[in-house]
Sequence to fold (190 residues):
Amino acid sequence: MLPSFYQACLQTQLSSIQFITLQMLVALLQRERCVSIERLATLFAQPIQFESRRRNLQRFLQLPQLNIKTLWFPILKYWLKQQFHRGQRLSLVIDRTQWKHHNLLMVSVVYKKRAIPLFWDCLDHCGSSSLFEQQTVLRPVLSLMQRYRCIVLGDREFHSVALADWLRQQRVGFVLRLPKSTTVKSQLRR
Fold:
């Protein structure tokens, strides 16, 4: 079900009961592909009443250890060390997507023609992200990727001069797609 290095990372962050709960929950989600708490509580294999299972799942999902930096980053660090060598050039993609009423800003690494999510944030508004929000999702990723030479790729939403300047200050390469109507003038140095 979970790769052994996932299990090793997760067991350091969760109690044995929490780890078993997580394994059961992952197995359920893989089988059912449904994220309704009520549906999961109905199917969850615990010999207690439905309402107790529902509250138990809600409490579990609100654990402070269940966050990106605590659980996901150790797994990512291990995976990155296995897949890439120090100083290797990696492409990071920043993208935002609107899915129903969810506005998600995400940074991913390109691996074998796939985007592997590194860090994400649900924005509390519709539409484009601000420079502050972009920096908020990029900072932890750039900290995580210090061993590598990174290039940030972004579509037209991320064409801001301020973002480009901030990335330059971070010593990170970037390729940001410009809208068709944009003209670029190089600054002559004397």
Q: What stands out?
A: The chain has two domains: 4-61, 86-176. Residues 16-32 form the longest helix (17 residues).
